[in-house]
Amino acid sequence: MSEENNQISNRKEKDSGAKIIFDNANLCALLLRNYSNIEALKDVRAEDIEDVTERYIPMFTEERNADVVKKVRIRDGSEIFIALIEHKAQVDYNVCMQVLRYMVFIWEDYAKQQEKIHKGISKSRDFKYPPVFPIVYYNGVNKWTVDKTFSSRIALGDVFSKYIPQFEYHLVNTGDYNREELLNREDGLSLIMLINKLRDAADFNSLGLPKDYLDNIAFKSPEDVLETLARVIAVVLRKQFVPEDEIQGFVSHIKERDMSDLFEGWKGFNVQEERQKGKEIGKDLTRINLICKKLSKGKSIKTIASEIEEDEAFVKEISFLAEKYLPDYDEEKIYEEWKQKEIIENPK
Prior knowledge:
A hairpin with a 4-residue loop joins strand 2 and strand 3. Helix content is 46%, strand content 9%. The chain starts with 17 loop residues before the first helix and ends with a helix. By secondary structure, the chain is α/β, with parallel strands linked by helices. A 5-stranded mixed beta sheet has the order 1-2-3-4-5, sandwiched between helices. Among the domains are: 18-176; 273-340.
């Protein structure tokens, strides 16, 4: 696959944070162990998981949203399956068809890989395709009312049942887990799911997470999980127009494993004023995204500044920050670094 095809130019930028979550192998392992209801996966570890998402981006094209694809080894390490995690923030009645297309892409690619090793093997009697475990992670506001079976999407399904693919996706719906269930799990994913339930910044006032719960997550979580927690919470808070200095305070506490009083002493703020600031954040993210898109096409700083009518110094600064995230361009991380630099250089 060429370098050009491996770029993420067709990624839809406005993720809710789900891709950030499941890019992390430890959190993905938690999902498979604790939320799959499959006994064979109860011992899956981060080191058993290999991210292969980038391989399928050219196949998924613009359909791709926040999905990730993982190759997972189980048991003695000799058996593998493919975990396909599709994120939905809204009810989508065509998800089964979308998942089927992804599964076929994955199987076709697997056969091509094996054919390169042993020509004609895919036509042999003993050739087997790896199982694909389709997971839909839903954290939307409305109740998920979509049937999980593919056949329910086909007209005259009862008449032609023999000829219709029979499968269903596994639904992980944050709304299906109540507060107590999530608190008992004491893991990073449970905290993310609790945060995902919040629909307004004011809800943080009544969150009231137990000190022991937060301490256990801070103590048990690897650094990469804490980093992901910090990023996801920052995404959620920005959507609620929370002031950037407060967001950075949250991020610092999480990264330093000082989470006991994380949600205490929540400051009051003028919603209208912060909503306006939120719009400014959106504009900045859009500016950064435009720059990243043009950088991915190999354009110079001067050309980019001219094409988007942006200050050349700003383009140069964003370009410098973006270099460390090659071949990906993570707009959220770039924004955070740029904003943190501004706060340090221009304190109030």
